Amino acid sequence: MSLRPLRSLFASLLILAVSACALLPDRDPLNISVVGIEPLPGQGLELRMAVTLRLQNPNDTAIDYSGVALDLDVNDRLLASGVSNQKGSIGSFSEAVLVVPVSVSAFAALRQALGLSQSQRLDNLPYELRGKLAGGLFGTMRFKDRGTLDLRQAEGDLW
């Protein structure tokens, strides 16, 4: 059997795959911001929170989603993670609010406490929120938000 037909088939499939990638929409990334954190009932040593996100779509096409996953790092350590199977759509050039339940395990809280005791600083704690908004075969959009937290004010409110 000659390899010529097999090579032609492979070349045709490669050209088809490359042209299909060019048809994928060129989207700007979503603008994601945390707008609230509320306590939820937990189980055992677990702490639960509802993280409220504002999702802004800067594109001229709507974005449909079928789930979201989040990881929250504080002081370069994983603090909380969560998932939600919420479905919805964010219209073109519009925004939506999404609430995602996250869990903080006892071990994650202990790691954070040990990290804070070593640094002795409650101001300018770096945080990073990473996540993905699932939306079909090629529609998953990843996002990231970074900033700093100042817990000195919260420290004074404890007593």
Automatic annotation (TrEMBL):
<dbReference type="InterPro" id="IPR013990">
    <property type="entry name" value="WHy-dom"/>
</dbReference>
<dbReference type="GO" id="GO:0009269">
    <property type="term" value="P:response to desiccation"/>
</dbReference>
<keyword id="KW-0732">Signal</keyword>
<feature type="signal peptide">
    <location>
        <begin position="1"/>
        <end position="22"/>
    </location>
</feature>
<protein>
    <submittedName>
        <fullName>Late embryogenesis abundant protein</fullName>
    </submittedName>
</protein>
<dbReference type="Pfam" id="PF03168">
    <property type="entry name" value="LEA_2"/>
</dbReference>
<dbReference type="InterPro" id="IPR004864">
    <property type="entry name" value="LEA_2"/>
</dbReference>
<feature type="domain" description="Water stress and hypersensitive response">
    <location>
        <begin position="32"/>
        <end position="152"/>
    </location>
</feature>
